[in-house]
């Protein structure tokens, strides 16, 4: 028993570190937005598009990664992802044109799907009564990689002391990702000893267990394509795409969505005509509501992390190092807040905790909309950290519920919920490209309040539901 617990802790540490490295690579551009804009002669709108594309492909990638991890296991998927994603990291560091930066950043967004892989790994290695807390540790400490990037990469660039210091700093994160991919593969297993890893029979998408759930599932895929449409609109708005190309891509996205909808309907039609065993049933409405809650909580965090260094530079006339250090406080709270959100959900009720946190989050983001250079810097940092604390705790609360929906589809459900986090970030950054930061924060606050209302429809996981999952796993 003691050896098993030791193995659990080792898996938690190694998986959290893998996600930490992924996030560090994912957000290694944020501290250098102003530097890259100045050296390569970019406009503020072009930098905004780079921030947007950095998040875009994580949307479909999280769906696909969820399917792959349920089919092939987190060990192989996480390791391969870390190794492959080092390549666009290197090409970004070497880029000399805007298109090279754009394509590299677009591909790097795929590494944001790494979050989904670890969710399935942690779910396999820890019991249900510790699910929220352990997933909170994984996500909270893993997301701290963005804070490390904001805090340390400018120092590394300064230490190099050349105008290309930012290139060396970003390339270094690619080297770390490449090396750790091999370390992770040699150090972990998909499930504890004497426990079978329940794989999906194929890498196909989720199945609905009622006709109402089928409608919800088809509708849930629409924002995924909508998030990509926002990206196309942003590219067209900054003249990187002509109107004709944009219209053609909109049509293509529409066709792809219709194809996906028809495919889901055909795959589920025969399945729904059979008698579905009780252990196989789960609520798609639960998935949809949690997805919207994550859209608001984590989507806002990603968007704010991307813009906060530049925001503090412009609002308080700070240098890149000072702004990066202050902005890192937004992600620093991950270390405590996300595990705390999971722990509170385990102890005091998942639905109640999530509703309270979403309501508080809406108030705090409305408060952020009033930030200006007239505020004392210390007060601005305090409000920023408070906003991050509550948002991260809400994200932890969301994923404290995900593993309880359907065990052997945890990866796919986490992929859907996680994708909505990226959809939220893309949508919020698109708002930022259209409006001033004050309106940007107000929109996030309004979204959090709407999700607070939606969270009323969440059902608290019952003991009966947990027992049903045990039966389905053969426990």
Q: What percent of residues adopt helix (DSSP H or I)? A: over 70%
Q: Topology as H/E string? A: HHHHHHHHHHHHHHHHHHHH
How many DSSP E strands? 0
- Given as residue ranges, the uncertain stretches (5+ residues, pLDDT < 50) are 1-6, 463-475
**Rg over CA atoms:** 21 Å
Using the 3D structure, state the CATH architecture: Up-down Bundle
Subunit organisation of the chains: single chain
The largest sheet is: none
CATH homologous superfamily heading: MFS general substrate transporter like domains
CATH topology: Growth Hormone, Chain: A
SSE-based structural type: mainly alpha
Brief overview, please?
With 475 residues, the protein is mainly alpha-helical.
What would you note in describing this structure?
By secondary structure, the protein is mostly helical. It has helices at 2-26, 33-39, 44-56, 58-72, 74-84, 86-94, 98-108, 114-125, 131-160, 165-187, 211-237, 243-273, 284-316, 320-332, 334-348, 350-368, 377-399, 410-434, 437-454, 463-473. It has a single domain, classed as MFS general substrate transporter like domains (Growth Hormone, Chain: A), CATH 1.20.1250. It has 20 helices and no strands. Helix 16 (350-368) runs antiparallel to helix 19 (437-454). It starts with a helix and ends with a helix. Mean pLDDT is 82; it is low at 1-6 and 463-475. Keywords: Membrane, Nitrate assimilation, Transmembrane, Transmembrane helix, Transport.
